[in-house]
What does this fold into?
Amino acid sequence: METISSYMEDQHKACDDFFVQAEEAVSVQEWEQAQGSFDAFHQAIEHHFAQEEGVLFPAIEEVTGSDLGPTQVMRMEHEQMRGLFSEMKNSLAAGDAEGFLGAAETLLVLMQQHNTKEEQIVYPMSEQLLADRREGILARLESLGEE
It folds into this structure.
């Protein structure tokens, strides 16, 4: 039986893999490969954010009656990361390996801290709060983006 935690954590791993591929390609200035890997990473992580912001966080907030706390912090961190995605995209377009890798280093730290909070706090909390709605939440998460 799949859980919300396992579903979302699998996406973290997939995003991490694309991120590493982009970093490695930039470090050897394989620009076409870097662009493809970055695009795959960016698409995967924005999809993941959309699932959280459009399905998971609202479900948690509905049960708790508050949009403050962990979900608010996660949304703010998503916005911080989006700023770095923009820097990385611009550096990639300019063939600026140093700029890309500098932003990537900052992003890596943010993602590690963010993912830890989600995996140790938000996802377990969602398992408890949404236990009776798990199947429906998973179905909505999986269908997001299929329209």
